[in-house]
Amino acid sequence: MSGVIIGFTAGIYVALNSLGAGGGQPDSANMVETVNATLCSVAIVSSAFGGTILNKLGHAITMFIGVLSYMIYVGGLWFFDRHDGLAFPLVGGVLLGIGAGCVYVVVGHILLSYPEEKEKGLYATISLNGQAAGSVIGSIIPVILNRDAQTSAGVPTAVYAVFEAMMGVAAIMSLFLLPPDKLTRDDGSKVAVAMPRTAKQEFVANLRAFKDWKLLLLFPGCFAAEAFLVYVGSMNAFSNNLRTRSLLSFIAVVLQIPFGFLITWILDNKRMNRRTRTLVGLTFVAVPLYAAWIWQIVRVRNWNRNDPPTYDKLVDWSDSDFVSAFFLFMLTWVASNLWQYIMMYFLGAITNDPVRLAHYAGIYRGFLAAGEALLFGLDSIGIPYIKEAGGIFAFYGSGCLICFWLGWYHIEDTMYFKEDHVVVPNHIIHEIVDNSHELPVPVDEQGMVVLGIEPTAHNPEKGQDEKMAVTSVQGDNEAGLE
């Protein structure tokens, strides 16, 4: 469900931006860059502390607030396309800055804390591919409507109406989201156990998350993870006509989906330990990522933003120049989006604690918003494209090197039994007890780890009560673990 919601909100947002400014109007570039820079600046703060909001309001209400903000944002672009008024889009941008943080925190928390360790790659893919699927729907509509248009034009009213309707469906769906303590895994164990906390406790925990050096080291990679959208959208509008932009945007998000499942196969592959599959997956993404951005730098090195091409000089899909532009756009889009899959996987490998992950999901989104805000600001003043591409490549390059180091030295095969208040799946406890008759640390009757207590060996010859005190899990309260 969260994948559908993110597709019908953030997916539509990506589709609008990848089409170029103003949903397809290059002359609206300054307006959209101003609105989006404002949006991302607000999102830095709202996302960074979104975990506190989520842990207090819950998943359904937090997501509902976020979806409504997307509806207002799209309405602002619609209004600008028809009436050229800036106030409505700016208000929509500010509200989306708050609401987008809410949506991403909820989705991030679900994909990071709900799955078992063996499924973290899959959950990241479901979420991000859901966003891509929303972008596919959002992109195919302009392709169909603009297939005969070779000059720039605004987005038809019907497109905006469809987008608003999709977001309305997402708003209704968001009200049916359940918190993790209301969900049960296939083996009978809870996803999480509810632990009431005050607003002050949540805020302090949120601040404490900023001290995690592993999270902070991910900043360069996170900073670039969505900043590339600004560059791609601006460059696409600068060099291509509307129908070409629409086609490129559509095919790119379609290609992202199968590659997303391929990276999942690597990251969740049971034939490799977690460190190995992390490094293999990172290499799988890093090589084309480096190639794409070096190619981008070479391509735009002589572009002059003060002398944009006239309409008749814009690239059309019937031109000979389209082939190279097509392959570069696909390589850049797919590799840059797969980088987000890697970032989410690293976040999920740091901890299994659902409370911490709520804060980490918000901070991660804040990092992304910071990158977007900076790029929107720089793009709005017209800095050369080679500097934009070079800056993005610098963050990707440093982020890759840091992740290789983290993956080699600091990614552990499991975090189970190493953190307080994490519910260990029943089958994991069964496997350990069956093989060694001893848990590394005690767990309570709900399967939640309780650190600070000496572990007790499982001894079948002793009383049933002693055995239950250490190894009892959901679904085994009558017979223990036989």
From TrEMBL:
It is a multi-pass membrane protein. Its main location: membrane. Residues 459-468 have a biased composition (Basic and acidic residues). It comes from the Eukaryota. Coiled coil: none annotated. SUPFAM superfamilies: MFS general substrate transporter (SSF103473). Keywords: Membrane, Transmembrane, Transmembrane helix. It is found in: Membrane. GO terms for molecular function: transmembrane transporter activity. Residues 456-482 are annotated as: Disordered. The chain crosses the membrane at residues 36-54, 61-80, 86-110, 122-145, 157-178, 215-234, 246-267, 279-298, 322-342, 363-386, 392-411. The keyword Disulfide bond does not apply. GO terms for cellular component: membrane. This is Major facilitator superfamily (MFS) profile domain-containing protein.
